[in-house]
Amino acid sequence: MKFYCLKKLCAALGSLLLLSASHAAFGQIAGLQSNNNFFLDSPDSTKYAVIMVGPSVAEENQSMFRQWGFSLHDILARDYGYSSDTITLLYDRGDQDSSSGGRVDGACDRAGIEQALASLASRVKTGDQITLYLIGHGSGAEEESKFNIVGPDITGIEFANLLDQFAEQDIAIINTTSASYGFSASLSGEGRVVISSTRSPSERYDPVFSRFFIEALDSRNSDRDKNNRVSMLEAFEYAKSNVEAWYEEQGRLASEHAGLDDNGDALFALDPNTGAADGRLAEIAYIDTLIDNNAGLSPQALALKARMQDIERSVFILRGRKADFLEANYWQQMEVLLVDLARTTGQFNEQITQ
Amino acid sequence: MNRLRSKSAARQFSLGLVLATCSFLIAIPVSQLAKAQEPLTISGESPLARGEQLLLTGSYAAASDIFQMADGLDRIDGLIGASRAFAMMGNYREAMNVVEAAIEGENYADSPLLSTQLAEVKRTVGLSTEALSILRAVVDGMADPPVRTLVQYGSLLKFTGARQAANQVLDQSVQRYNDGLVFASEDVGMVALASWLLNNFHDANSLFNEATRANPNNLEAHVLWADLFLEKYNASDAERGYQDALDINSRYTPALVGIAKVVGDERALQRALAINPNSIPAMETYGQLLLMNGREEEAEDYFTRVLALNPEALKTLSVLAARAALNERSEEFAEYRAQVEAFSPDNPQFLGDIADTFGNNYLFTQAVDYARAAIAADPQYWQGYTLLGSNLIRLGEEEEGKANLEIGFENDPFNVMTSNMLKVFDTLETYTTQESAHFKVHMSQNDADILWPYLEPLLEEGWDTLTAKYGYEPEVPILIEIFDKTEDFAVRSVGLPDIGPLVGICFGKVITLISPDTLSANWQEIVWHEFMHVITLQMTGNRMPRWLSEGISVWEEREGRPYWGRSQGLDLVRAAKDDKLLPIGELNSGFSGARNNADLGFAYFQSYLVVDYITQTHGFDKLVELVKQYAFIKEESERFSAVFDQSLGEFDTGFRSWIDQRVEEINVYVHTEDMPDEGEGHGHGIRENSSAILAELYNNASLKQHMRSRIEENDRDFQAYLQLGIVLFKEENFEEAKGYLETAHELLPSYTGYPSPALVLAQIYEKESNQQARLQWLEILLEGLQHDYDSAMVLAGAALEDADHERAAYYIDRAIQVDPYRNGVHVLKAQYAESIDDRELAVTEYEVLVKLEINDPVEARTNLAEAYLRNGQLSEARQNVLYALEIAPSFQRAQQVLLRSVDGEAN
């Protein structure tokens, strides 16, 4: 089932594709797809999450990091189809206590990280997706940027080396630490989605981005397009908007500006979107696992579903070409498509409830 | 006119350094030669060097003695030094004598530097004609008169109205610099002054910089440079300049006066006058400061002393003339004006100062007239355009105001006030304008979308209520400007970006406000308050004293809504106990002399109490009568006598006795160790009870014990009950906490500081999951507290759940009064609208929610489309749902709305 992949690539590459006639677009998509097999999101692939929560001296931060790490673990398990087998939580010194509820898989130290990633490497298959969440403090700048872990800190370059063992998997990294920029830049690479809570070496204060990124995932709050799935781009946009609103409400100048890089140039976009250099991959990089829900559908229902997918694709194509149309003309065409889609969806629903 | 040649100036600077070094080398043997002929000081230095050192460190008396010991080649410099030292002590007679005695006959050109010093002192004591003839003699009698002489001559020519001649002379000094003939720091400082007088402010700035670099101990240059900054309203650089001078000589009176001008520091002036009891600038500044604080008699005393010393003291004359004009004492004003005309014809500064005084007293029409007169007197008086522009803006004449500010800026770009005000026009260009029957409002698009639906009805309600009540209709439209940046609000209001805790200002026809988006206070109360000012100001031609205008505005807050206004019972008891209530005649000084927000807040509160006293004791009509009295120029006592048939003293006695009675009724004990409540935005906003907040933070056994002992000492110690209740609450000893908090509430039920007994009790019941009791206490809390969004939301939500629509509407409105920019309240209001089937209201709320939504635009658009659909607005419904589906084409709820809107199904 490649529908989502095709659809999202269409949307993501819309502005590029739509320079040519729409009927020719699919040929280009296919071509692009064969060259860039990232985040294909097939139902037979597995999604893994590695949550790394670093230590903190301050009690308040320690408690906050812990809460974030554990909440993230629970949300992924509850809403996104992950299980304790697919989530690895490395927390501080790795101590299990009564309140950790068996969530902690190990210590967030160098050995713990290396061991966890090696273990993961032995389990994953080609096309699986691994999302790494870094929570805690960071320090340094550029090549010396570090994620503060128990014992000697780990630099971005060292961490990037550890990720080299996942060449056949899709990698997304959400680095929410302070001074995260340099570390995140070291992890940039083709086919990777890297989100950094800060976008400049001068942003060194503890960011609030993590809080809002987790909030974005909670109950699929950031599902902007209402398809019941949350993409990295949607979660990023939600967190970013709420960080801005938070600083405004506090009456403070924002000391953090989150950025996203998904084209491998290590340049983090503040406002990624499908029409910009960064954002296209993040839009198809879903956090949740895809469930094959075609099973049991009648041939008529399958035909209607295919038609819905066709119309939806046309909507994305038209949306991508918005700038080429006069406003009234655009909405006229959009309305035709959307009414068609709405009626077809109605027919499909009737079919499956019969 | 000569301007600095920048390249040659740079060359000149380096050349100057070289030559200065050479002259130093040459000077040593001359100095040694001199030393051989003259007695040395005990330290072995020459008297001149020692005198200079003493002068620099502020030992003026010793300096004056030592300088006079200088002889030989140092003699003239010594005499000038002595004269300057005498002048620094205010002994102007001796300052003149010591140099005059050394000038043979009236051959001033033979002793140019002595003569220049003599002229400068003569000018200081108001003998400008004599000073002018001395300087003229020097300049006419020499081929190359000293730079200082040229500049002082030019300055005096300008002062006496000979502007063209002044410019020629000042130009000569600048030319001298351009020719590479000015080296010494003192002379460079003089050329800087010449550039300033020629309106070449950039050159002046560079030259002062050069002068102070060449000699960091050139105090005169430091202070003149700071004066230049101060003239341009650049307070921070001015303060730094004065401080630089004081770091070198803490007894340098011109710098002490400068600091006082920047920060209003009375002690700096007292120090200056202790050093130089005849310092004219110190006395002038002190007089102005006292006048601002309503201490007229003391001010008068200073002004009299100034004029006795210097009958040509322009600032003093302009202040006195302005006061005469303000009080419509036209003969007196004419006398002052004639006095100035006699020595400084057509002085634009004099007229400009009067314009400024009128503007500061809210008499903008007259300020505009005087600013125009100042410009007519000297079209190159650029400050005049700033004064004209800023006062026109306050009259709502924005276009002409801006045009004048632009003229000012083009010619004097360093004037911070001018550039700031023009920048606000840039902001205003991005704003939108909304109009109602009587108001025209400039605001950001965000405010227009979210605030305007609630602001418009409030403004018109205010108009209907208050114009009827006071029997007066102000001139319309009333212009309101709402700024979403505090700096823009401040600049638009006072020209500078710092305005302290103020959140709204009324100029009579114009109101400026901070957008409620940046406040956490009841914005409706603020709007009501400011509109009341429009009425009282316009009723009196802007002659209302601040205390009464504020008193009425605060009083009308409570009249507008029962939960608006101020409840500062605790502060009142404390003020009465500490005898801090001001007599009526001094109430204005409560505002101008407030040292902190608490003081300022109390000034508003006491003014309100006076108004409350008048209405309760004498009746509302008497209040209106009193307001009307201010339309005429009268003594305060006459007004009170005419309205209340009482002297001011009798009125005051009556008021104090009423206050005593009120304090008795409040009947709480205030402990000296508790801090007064601190309110934000002069009382609009939550008033923080710092003592109770500390109790919240540091709950411990010793605090509990201490509070228990306080209660034992005095069983009406409100704060002790409250703080003990808070500590017990934090310890989760809820039952005991309730007892103390309920007692605190009974002692002072009107208390609305943060935290209050009602708030903490509500929190206890929330912890105990006793929703009914929680809601009861929140209701009690909101009876007197208008700035609490969260409690209003809780009550609104509960009322909606109970389908109590009336209560729901009331509390939703209460929340909107504090913060209309939060989603939550509009979600509730939309739900409320749906539950009472008010489709139009639902549309309004969903429209606002679309503007506010940052996380889920699809949901917001779909909700709005549905609301349109229910309201029969099919086309709007269709367009909005298309916006939603464009983002989320598979969103089925939106699809259904689309089909219904296309198929014409409204319901």
- Count structural domains of chain B: 7
Major sheet characteristics of chain A: 6 strands, mixed
The amount of beta strand of chain B, in percent, is under 5%
Radius of gyration of chain B: 34 Å
Q: Low-confidence spans of chain A: pLDDT under 50, at least 5 residues?
A: 1-35
Task: Give the tally of structural domains of chain A.
Answer: 2
What kind of assembly state do the chains in view correspond to? heterodimer
What composes the largest sheet of chain B? 5 strands, mixed
Task: Tell the overall outline of chain A.
Answer: globular
Spatial order of the strands forming the largest sheet of chain A: 2-1-3-7-8-9
* CATH topology heading of the largest domain in chain B: Serine Threonine Protein Phosphatase 5, Tetratricopeptide repeat
* Beta fraction of chain A: 5-15%
Overall radius of gyration of chain A = 21 Å
Greatest interface: A-B, 29 and 24 residues
Reading the helices and strands of chain A in chain order gives: HHHEHEHEEEEHEHEHHEHHH
Q: Helical proportion of chain A?
A: 40-55%
- Average predicted confidence as pLDDT of chain A: 85
The gross shape of chain B turns out to be globular
Return the average pLDDT of chain B rounded to an integer.
90
Textual characterization of the structure:
- The complex is a heterodimer of chains A (354) and B (907).
- Chain A is an alpha/beta fold and 354 residues long.
- Chain A folds into 2 domains: 3-36 and 293-353, no CATH class; 47-284, Rossmann fold.
- Helices cover 45% and strands 11% of the residues of chain A.
- In chain A, a hairpin with a 6-residue loop joins strand 4 (138-139) and strand 5 (146-147).
- The radius of gyration of chain A is 21 Å and the shape is globular.
- The two termini of chain A are 24 Å apart.
- The relative contact order of chain A is 0.13.
- With 907 residues, chain B is an all-alpha fold.
- In chain B, strands 1-2-3-5-4 form a 5-stranded mixed sheet. In chain B, strands 6-7 form a two-stranded antiparallel ribbon.
- The longest helix of chain B is centred in the N-terminal third of the chain and has 32 residues, at 6-37.
- Residues 6-38 of chain B have low confidence and may be disordered.
- The chains are: A alpha/beta (354), B mainly alpha (907).
- The interface between A and B is medium-sized, with 29 and 24 residues.
